[in-house]
Amino acid sequence: MMKRRTTGLLAAATMIAGSRAFAQPARPTVVLVHGAFADGSSWNGVIRHLTDEGYPVMAAANPLRSLSGDADALDAALSSLPMPVVLVGHSYGGSVISMAARGRSNVKALVFVSAFAPTRGESATALSGRFPGSTLGSALAQPVPLPGGGNDLYVRHDRFHEQFAADVPAAMAGLMAATQRPVTDTALSDPAGEPAWTSIPSWFIYGDRDRNIPPQALAFMAERASSRRTVVVRGASHVPMISHPHAVAEIIQRAAIET
Fold first, then answer.
1. Predicted TM-score (pTM) of this structure
2. Is pLDDT above 90 for 158?
3. Distance CA 63, CA 71 (A)
4. Residue 53 belongs to domain with CATH number
């Protein structure tokens, strides 16, 4: 077990006596990006594990409006972090991290948590439908039209538990359903740009009971990205960071240590 200590979001550099050199932070910053129908609080359990081990952590807000716009928002956040970063995405957030990290020298590793890892021209919707098993379409509520065009999408409250988070307590799933953030249909259908996983090492973790993204699709994407390590959590739903936070934190730490 790593020695426990507390750090801030951005660890302060320490001047070495008698020189102008500065010590580097002991741990890379972990940036967590939530996906559709979720928010930053979905990472709370993972954050507790990581901060206990001395990792600075930032849960970035994902606008869920368009893939290029969401990637630009994350890119701006990454610009404020000069030190090494382990970038983690859940679900649609995987598409976002792969676009935002392209060409970023401070991103040392990508971790995909039940997440899309598209290549150029692929969308989340297309990847999800490439293999059988997703029941998300039938679990969506009536689309909410937006003033500028397009629609916001929500998961029906009465289907949220079984569809999105079957392995978390019903009361918790109810709270998640009530606080879910909508994603636009545009964001899910936007084609991806050149992916960062072709040049940045990647790790994958997902559950074998995922009803949003078929496990077969997740296995395909992990293999295509030459995942350094792929963990399949038995019995886990689409949200292993909530139901199995220790396992997710562990693979993030592995990515931090091995790169």
1. 0.90
2. yes
3. 9
4. 3.40.50.1820
One-letter amino acid at 91 equals S
Q: Are 47 and 60 within 8 A, CB to CB?
A: no
Is the per-residue pLDDT at 257 higher than 50? yes
Range of the domain at 126: 29-132+182-258
For residues 210 and 114, the answer to whether their CB atoms sit within 8 Å is: yes
How many structural domains compose the chain? 1
How far is the C-alpha of 18 from the C-alpha of 34, rounded, in Å? 44
**198-236 pLDDT, tens digit each:** 999 999 999 999 999 999 999 999 999 999 999 999 999
Work out the number of other CB atoms within 10 angstroms of the CB of residue 223. 11
Q: How far apart are CA 57 and CA 126, in angstroms?
A: 32
What value does the mean pLDDT take over residues 100-117? 97
Tokens standing for residue 153 = 């999408």
Could you tell me how many residues make up the chain? 259
Whole-angstrom distance, CA of residue 235 vs CA of residue 113: 15
Residue in the block written with tokens 């959590």: 233
Task: List the single range of 14-23, 132-141, 237-246 with lowest mean pLDDT.
Answer: 14-23
Q: Please give the span between the terminal C-alpha atoms of the chain, in angstroms, as a whole number.
A: 19
- DSSP letter (8 states) at residue 231: E
